[in-house]
Specification:
The complex is a heterodimer of chains A (about 210) and B (about 350). Chain A is of the alpha/beta class and about 210 residues long. In chain A, about 45% of the residues lie in helices and about 15% in strands. In chain A, α6 links the parallel β3 and β4. The longest helix of chain A has 20 residues. By secondary structure, chain B is of the alpha+beta class. In chain B, about 30% of the residues lie in helices and about 15% in strands. Chain B has ten helices and eleven strands. In chain B, α7 runs parallel beside α10. Chain B is elongated and about 85 Å long. The chains are: A alpha/beta (about 210), B alpha+beta (about 350). Chains A and B meet through α3, α4 and α6 of A and α8 and α9 of B.
Chain lengths: ~210, ~350
């Protein structure tokens, strides 16, 4: 079928430009900073389709008591709602949507992004404890024919800054106070060049 | 053991018709890896204890404490009754001509009582399970600190008939939910979350991905558990077979003291029964939710609790849990088969 071939070809070349990356990652970092200022996990995440933000999210684990409510999962739900409101087909939108997130998606989120056929993820720092794009498992490119499609990653964009925000968030928390999931969530991230960060944080957690 | 030997008679819906086997980590289930070493016959038995002592200090088997130094000679009628492990081949990497004299420096071990060395294969890692121990011992005597529970579990005999009857009942609920989901055009997968302490079903869910690509049965159940505690973020009211039991004062009395409502990981201590092996997303969601144990009926192609990954035993992750497969395997497999047929029929 002709139109499908065309579609496949254009998907091959579908990739954000450096300009796109700078612009949208800057928004993601603004979101993360805003979260930090409000005492929330400083992770920013947005989904962009045709130069329009169609989903954004922050971690909602505590208020929903649902440990799967990571920022990416919240953003995916917004994309689905957006498609419904716009009367557009979910798959054809997702296939041309890019996720910009300040921290590498976890294993669960990486699998979820495959399941919705997202083609590209741009992220800041690595997620040493849970990362699903290579840090713990490489779900993004693994051979999993029943689990949607693989996606490409652009990593390391302003990584130090992402880690710095997480560190700041941690310092605001009282280590002797309640060890809630926010804190835990935070402890799960680090940047490879600073292994000592992970280590120190891990000590506090345990 | 008699009960397990029984062939299942009559109905498939019989707790004797299935066996739950543990899904062990790679380390516990992998083949026995072997490395090469030099052994030598002890031609004078009286020298044995001296040889062992001196070899232990010359070539200590660091990191290989599971390997026994001496073995009784395998072949009957052998001129020497014992053989001793001299060293690993990696201990003497640059040796060109191997003889007992070249292996034993003159100031170290007196070669009295030893014959000429020969190459043997010894297990590289301590055996973790009885099957690994039995394989390892075929090569060289190996010590084994047996975890009796693992041995019993690998024989499929971990659960008592009473426990199996309870597990059977929970998986039947998951099967019923799976069929209800299928009626609505979803994939035929059902799941049940159970509080094993209270012997109480907390949530029942089925696949809803026809309406939301991420609403697999396990994800539905995790949110229903959150709803059972007054939170959650989805409404599954349009699926009558997806339901939860609200956590009341009565049911929460066993939950430790004050903080039942503020526990951040709400599946702590709960068991999940699911008709087929969870995918990567669902398996990791169970890690995040701190599930207690998972029981599934049948494996799935991209499964992450045994088939493609063993996320429940992944060393780097912060939560690990036990997984058992094979609970009501036959009816759970049949769900998948009918699902596949439907897919083919609709040209997918």
């Amino acid at each position: 079928m002709g139109p499908e071939d065309c579609e496949a070809e254009s998907l091959e070349s579908f990739f954000p430009t450096d300009e796109d990356i700078d612009k949208w990652m800057s928004s993601a970092f603004d979101m993360a900073r805003e979260a930090l200022e409000n005492g929330e996990v400083p992770v920013g995440c947005l989904m962009v389709y045709k130069d329009e933000v169609v989903g954004k999210g922050r971690n909602e684990v505590n208020e929903t008591k649902n440990a799967t409510r990571h920022a990416e999962m919240v953003a995916v739900d917004q994309v689905l709602d957006w498609c419904r409101c716009s009367g557009l087909d979910v798959r054809s939108v997702c296939e041309r949507t890019v996720l910009y997130v300040t921290v590498e998606p976890c294993i669960m989120c990486a699998a979820a992004l495959r399941l919705i056929n997202l083609p590209v993820v741009v992220y800041g720092c690595r997620n040493e404890r849970f990362g699903g794009c290579g840090s713990v498992l490489d779900v993004s490119s693994a051979h999993l024919p029943q689990t949607g499609t693989t996606f490409k990653c652009v990593s390391g964009h302003r990584a130090e800054e992402a880690v710095e925000m997480l560190k700041t968030f941690y310092k605001q928390e009282n280590p002797n106070g309640h060890l809630n999931s926010h804190l835990f969530f935070f402890l799960s991230f680090s940047l490879l060049p600073f292994p000592s960060v992970t280590f120190c944080l891990f000590l506090f957690f345990t | 053991m008699e009960p397990q030997m029984k062939r299942w008679k009559g109905s498939v819906y019989d707790a004797d018709s299935w066996v739950a086997y543990p899904v062990l980590s790679d380390e516990q289930s992998q083949d026995v890896e072997l490395i090469e070493a030099f052994a030598a016959p002890i031609v004078n038995k009286k020298e044995t204890s001296r040889l062992v002592r001196e070899l232990n200090s010359l070539y200590p088997l660091n990191g290989f404490q599971h390997i026994k130094r001496v073995r009784a000679c395998k072949e009957k009628g052998s001129p020497h009754p014992l053989e001793v492990l001299v060293c690993l081949i990696s201990d003497v990497p640059d040796m060109k001509e191997v003889s007992i004299d070249s292996l034993l420096p003159s100031d170290g071990v007196k070669p009295d009582g030893l014959g000429e060395p020969f190459v043997v294969k010894v297990p590289a890692r301590p055996p973790l399970t009885r099957p690994q121990f039995e394989l390892a011992s075929q090569h060289w005597p190996t010590s084994f600190h047996e975890d009796k529970l693992v041995t019993v579990a690998l024989r499929g005999e971990l659960f008592t008939p009473t426990q199996k009857a309870t597990m059977h009942m929970y998986m039947m609920s998951a099967l019923t939910a799976a069929k209800a989901g299928k009626e609505l055009g979803m994939e035929a997968v059902g799941a049940v979350v159970v509080d094993p302490e209270m012997e109480r079903i907390v949530a029942v869910g089925h696949d809803c991905r026809g309406d939301h690509p991420l609403h697999h049965a396990v994800m539905v159940c995790i949110d229903l558990v959150a709803r059972s505690q007054g939170s959650g973020c989805f409404c599954f009211d349009s699926y009558p077979a997806c339901r939860f039991t609200p956590l009341t004062a009565n049911t929460s009395q066993n939950v430790s003291d004050s903080d039942a409502g503020s526990r951040p990981y709400i599946c702590t201590g709960y068991d999940l029964y699911v008709t087929r092996e969870p995918c990567v997303m669902c398996a990791m969601a169970l890690v995040h939710s701190r599930i207690g144990r998972v029981f599934y009926g049948t494996a799935s192609l991209d499964g992450a609790l045994g088939t493609k990954y063993k996320i429940h035993s992944q060393k780097d992750l912060n939560h690990r849990f036990e997984v058992y497969k094979g609970v009501l395997s036959k009816p759970c497999e049949d769900l998948n088969i009918s699902d596949d047929h439907d897919k083919k029929d609709s040209g997918q």
